[in-house]
DNA sequence: AACACTGCCAACCGCCGGGAT
DNA sequence: TATCCCGGCGGTTGGCAGTGT
């Protein structure tokens, strides 16, 4: 099955009424496009970004004449239009790295993606949900088609709590990193080993690197192996 | 051939943090 | 200081296409 081809179905356009009443503001209606992007929209977006750069997404959306919200433009750019994006065919090497990084970081898809050049957090998340989570736990039922609708936050789980608690630490990368992922009793969700890392600031500093740094990967794998031996 | 089921991807949603006002 | 706005993030879902019955 080929999933790389762009799909450009008919755009559903409808009136979205912002929740201005809640915000105590006057009610405003605005036509915005939602759903799959058309080739024409892609072209307009790329043109504007080529001139103004990928920032100020609201302005980009307006300048491109797209009836899209800035968020949607950002997502489209980051996940699809951005240069040097690799699509499909996750290599064994990449898969191994994803597994190791996930063991270390949990569902921090953007951080994991930052270590895989040309891969997006969305792609890695999708790959994890459709391939790797099943590999780790073949009995696991796919999470899709959940009955709930509205509100994307699930009840906070152990791992989520722990990951959230370290979020800021990892983000500003100034404090020693502690990832004490949950170890659970038998029959629970797959457990992650706990570890404490007096990580030096540079170790998780991805900000100054443009692409996959194999030296970093080697360091990471060494670090990871050392930790597991400990 | 027709239908149901499943896999996968793209895109949306709500939450959150940080900067601007 | 309080509030608003924007961008980033992870979770979730709609819908197409392939596969099974």
From TrEMBL:
Every Myb-like domain range: 29-81, 82-132
GO terms classed as biological process: cell differentiation; regulation of DNA-templated transcription
Composition bias, Basic residues: 142-152
InterPro entries with a match to the protein in the record: Homeodomain-like_sf, Myb_dom, Myb_TF_plants, SANT/Myb
CDD domains attached to this UniProt entry: SANT
Residue ranges of domain HTH myb-type in the record: 29-85, 86-136
GO cellular component terms listed in the entry, alphabetical order: nucleus
Keywords, sorted A to Z: DNA-binding, Nucleus, Repeat
Compartment(s) of residence: Nucleus
MF terms in GO: transcription cis-regulatory region binding
Biased composition (Basic and acidic residues): 154-174
Region (Disordered): 133-192
Pfam families named in the record: Myb_DNA-binding
PANTHER family: MYB TRANSCRIPTION FACTOR, TRANSCRIPTION FACTOR MYB51-LIKE ISOFORM X1
Protein name (Swiss-Prot/TrEMBL): Uncharacterized protein
Organism: Trapa natans
